[in-house]
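Exercise 7 asks you to align residues with tokens for two separate proteins.
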Amino acid sequence: MPEIYVDADACPVKDEVLRVAARHKLVTHLVSDGGIRPRAGPLVQIVVVAQGADAADDWIAEHIGKGDIAVTNDIPLAARCLEKGARALKPNGDAFTEDSIGMALATRDLMAGLRETGEITGGPRSFTKRDRSRFLGTLEVTVQAALRETC
């Protein structure tokens, strides 16, 4: 059975992940360096890692496997998950794929450089209800595909 790994520190769709996972009876790992409140449920694993910039990412990358699903905004983590045969979704419903991850990494690096020089200020756009709805649909389709592959 596939499992779901959530980069949980700043994830705005934890409740949505848990709803979909409960419906399909999937183990879900909420990985954080602290600060998330425990969620009820026998299939919910709260993983608290040491504080550090990439501690949660490293834990997820070490434990995720083929057919599993990661929920993260972190592009390098998504790349690591894809390398292991897992799927990766952004909280807004966009899927990272083998075809798109290279461009996503390059764009990330370009934008970081532009922010450092002051040419671009600000961050990503606000998370919306439409993003949440799109995420729910994408997660459901992704879980169903992962389940078909494991059966």
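Second protein for Exercise 7:
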Amino acid sequence: MQFADESGVILIVDDDRPVREALSVVVSSLGYHSLIAANGLEAMKILKEKKCDIVLCDLVMPRMDGMEVLKHILKHHFDTDVIIATGHNKKVRYADVIRAGALDFIKKPIDQAELEAKLARALRERRMIRKLETLSMSDSLTSLLNRRAFDQRFQDEVERAHRQNYPLFLALLDIDNFKTYNDNYGHSEGDKILMTLGTTLNEYTRNSVDLSFRLGGDEFAVLLPQTTVAQAKEIIERAMLNFNESNDNQTTLSVGIVACNRDDQVDLKSDIHRMQKQADQAMYEAKSSGKNRVVCRV
């Protein structure tokens, strides 16, 4: 899972220009990256383009108030937290804001020391949550992302590819003759093969672009966004060659590759189901036609 910069990216949303500019100066002086938006609609555009850790949002704004911004962020930007800021407002209480899903609430005029403490606490909690998420989403043997992570990230990546209209490929990889290798050499040697493939996928896929997973047993997957079918196949074939050389060709890989369907007429769930089914079929076709090969269905 990709997050904003570790120092913290804070988006300030306030329709009062002097207030947002003053807050930007304060936030920057605390060592965070500061972004500003004059209203909720402008904030939504920024969030589409940049990952933000925290949105510090005024409650009372024309056209789209802070509660509407909060609702949008909770629905579309699950990895962004919101702190609502407001003056003396009898209509909305602290409990209402927290119940609606905000991380915290701060009164205006904002006290710098209070803001510093709330941002530090929020970012500290986010880092703890990230560590826990990393542990829960990682395969302990190979250090790749696990099946749980795949189910989440696959849907996210297909949705993003549909929305932003860029190509996405799914590769399913299965280790050939793995059961026989395990039976002949023992599970500890089999584990070494799995770890070798994990290392190979980390080294031969694009850093911070492609996503590699161990789905379970000897089955792996790679998501390859923003590439062509030829480039996706080249990435996988380079990884296959290195893997074969690393274990003296005692085990090889059978791989199926499919493309995301970016047709507006195809809904998200249907495309996800189709990709998984066709990638699985392509991978088994690679096995049945001699193993150690890639079959593309795009």
